[in-house]
């Protein structure tokens, strides 16, 4: 859990999370992508070849899946492993409590983070 002592301006990254928080973020990202694709867990199990039980554990943050199985899942939902493991996660600050809850969406690129060209081509 991110504490108040940590800088609120710093963007948390997956590497700074506890194992339980990491598994929760990964599970939420899979669930969100599956939902965005309009796919049921049963259908994902059929397409990916991963059991519904494993998928339920993964999405709830309880499962610790192998990379091979995780790759089958991400391929089936049209998500790259890079997106799933995106280091940055956005923060949502709760005004009613002292804790900070983490969004499970990968951080969106901004104009400042976009690659810059070192040259200009004129036509």
Number of helices: 5
- CATH level 4 superfamily: lambda repressor-like DNA-binding domains
> Whole-Å distance between the termini?
52 Å
Low-confidence stretches: 4-9, 91-104, 109-121
Q: Helix proportion of residues, in percent? A: 25-40%
Overall domain count? 1
Task: Describe the largest sheet.
Answer: 2 strands, antiparallel
Written description of the protein model:
The protein has 123 residues and is of the alpha+beta class. The chain has a single domain (14-106), classed as Orthogonal Bundle (434 Repressor (Amino-terminal Domain)). The chain has 5 helices and 2 strands. The chain has helices at 19-36, 41-48, 52-59, 67-76, 81-84, and strands at 89-93, 100-106. A two-stranded antiparallel ribbon has the order 1-2. Strand 1 (89-93) and strand 2 form a beta hairpin. The longest helix is centred in the first third of the chain and has 18 residues, at 19-36. It is globular and about 35 Å long.
Q: Which labels suit this protein?
A:
123 residues; 434 Repressor (Amino-terminal Domain); two-stranded antiparallel sheet; 10% strand; single chain
List the helices and strands and how they pair.
Blueprint: H1 19-36, H2 41-48, H3 52-59, H4 67-76, H5 81-84, E1 89-93, E2 100-106
Antiparallel strand pairs: 1-2
């Amino acid at each position: 859990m991110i504490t108040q002592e940590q800088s609120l301006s710093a963007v948390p990254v997956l590497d700074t999370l506890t194992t339980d928080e990491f598994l929760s973020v990964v599970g939420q990202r899979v669930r969100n992508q599956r939902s965005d694709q309009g796919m049921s867990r049963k259908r994902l199990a059929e397409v990916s070849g991963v059991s519904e039980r494993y998928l339920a554990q993964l999405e709830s943050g309880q499962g610790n899946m192998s990379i091979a199985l995780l790759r089958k899942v991400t391929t089936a939902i049209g998500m790259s492993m890079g997106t799933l493991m995106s280091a940055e996660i956005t923060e949502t600050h709760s005004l009613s409590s002292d804790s900070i809850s983490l969004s499970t969406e990968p951080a969106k690129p901004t104009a400042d983070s976009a690659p810059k060209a070192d040259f200009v081509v004129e036509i």
